[in-house]
Amino acid sequence: GDNRDLHPFPTRRSSDLEAADRLIELGDKRETWTLYKGDALARQSRYDQAINLYTQVISLPPRKVSASVTRRAHWSRAHVYRRVKAYARAYDDYTAVARIDRGAPSSLQWDYYQRATVLWILGRADEALEDYRTFSLRQGSPFYSEARRFLILRSQGRVAEANELLQKARRDVRDPWLARIFACLDGDLDAQALIDSVSGQTVSGGSNLERLCEAYYYAGESALLAGETQQARHWFQKCIETGVEFDPDSFPLSPMSEYDLAQWRLDSTAAPASDSGNDKHSRPEERRVGKECR
Question: Shortest CA distance to 40 belongs to which of 58, 22, 59, 14?
């Protein structure tokens, strides 16, 4: 679940690429349409080609391209770097966006949000917490960032702090879907019930794969909190099988962080369960003790 602006055009068809090529040839707003083509390529999983187009725009001298277009190129390239697991490069691009966005707080909050996810995957948990916290302060209401902060704090053994954060989010949240995610992480809603609450539903006339991707991911995190590594891996794999790599309703390109995080969890957990560095999860008995520390 991430930021989005509705895209007025479909983005998976070959006709999108053909239209972009024609518009680029016209010469008007050439860089903008190059970025559009890059996004269309990314949605077709042609990541290297997309990255090359974004890089072409980023490499242009400032006198030939506006700061807003350069920002968009860094933004989209960061998202696609995540798809090829080049997380350090994604971090650099998000940081470049943050530099361009200084003085524009409404944009800057999303820079922090996206960069935090990359930092978490890179194992830089304290920095991820700080970026998520900064985003939350700017956002002003409970969001997915609260779920991520809770999970990071739990992985660091800061159980009482994590539970206090989650209880506050549950009190303040107004979005019914986020409320169910928080309840699942808190152990008050069964993971299967979370999934069943969205399976087969539709939104805006289409299948709700985006929300199903989120449900599978948070079901997996709930299983990890309970020490059920193999069940967690099952849910993370189901998240990946949705195929929702990017938010389907977003333009410019916006990644599905839950997809990235599920892939990372699959890469860092094994059968049988093994330690994964900074991501050591509590056993069931520790979870029960934690809930008593609210």
Answer: 14
Q: How far apart are the first and last CA of the chain?
A: 27
Cis peptide before 61 (omega within 30 of 0): no
Rounded CA-CA distance 122/152 in Å is 13
CB 145 within 8 A of CB 114: no
Give me the helices (H) in 226-283, please: 229-241, 257-268
Nearest Cα neighbor of 151 from 265, 35, 22 is 265
- How many separate helices (H) and strands (E) can be counted in the chain? 15, 2
- Which residue type sits at 234? H
Q: Are 227 and 282 in contact (CB under 8 A)?
A: yes
CA 33 → CA 20, 106, 137, distances in Å?
A: 6, 25, 35
In this predicted structure, the answer to whether residue 222 has a pLDDT above a threshold of 50 is: yes
Give the Cα separation of 93 and 247 in Å (integer). 19
Nearest-10 crossing angle of helices 125-139, 105-121: 150
pLDDT at 272 over 80: no
Task: Please state, in angstroms and rounded to a whole number, the distance separating the CA atoms of residues 120 and 130.
Answer: 11
> What percent of the chain is predicted at pLDDT more than 70?
76
The model's pLDDT over 142-151, given as tens digits with 9 standing for 90+, comes to 999 999 999 9
Average pLDDT, the chain: 83
How far is 82 from 257, CA to CA, in rounded Å?
A: 9
Which residue is it, tokens 């187009």? 53
Q: pTM of the entire structure?
A: 0.81
CA distance 17 to 216: 32
In angstroms, rounded to a whole number, what is the distance separating the alpha carbons of residues 283 and 278? 15
